[in-house]
Amino acid sequence: MTVDDFAKIAGALAWPMTALIAVSLVYKPLRVLLKRLSETLTFKSLKVKAFGFESELTAEYARTVLHELLEDITESTNALTPEEIELFDRILAAKGTKTLIELVPGFTREDSSGNHLRLRHLRDQKLIIPSERGRWKPEKHPVVTRYGQLVNRLRTKSADKEEFKREAAG
Q1: Which of 30, 62, 67 is nearest to 48 (CA)?
Q2: Contact 128, 148 (CB under 8 A)
Q3: What is the pTM of this model?
């Protein structure tokens, strides 16, 4: 092997060797830095401010509170009858564009079919309200509250999960 051959081989290997040496020197400190960053950027606590009070929750406690809250939401909607659920779905689909008389033909506050009681129960559960506020009257537009929209999203997700489980099992 001549000096020129050696120079050509050394020249060709210079950049890859330099890169490997640089990576090997920087790898460990870079790995330590990335590990520290991942540890400091994880969710360790959650600060909650409400009504002028501030509280800090750990990740595990926040998960527990959220789970209990979702259970409370589920329990409140388990008390609904099929007729109330059907009425809620009609109100949800109307998006506040229809009056009570359009949603429930022949609606009166004194009706014997129980529609007024269903509306009151849905409002008591914080799922719907008349957009004009006040009492239920035929000309008022029922709308789904933010809480009602959350309940609907949870209900939809829960139904999707149940359907997926049935399809996977069958």
Answers
A1: 62
A2: yes
A3: 0.58
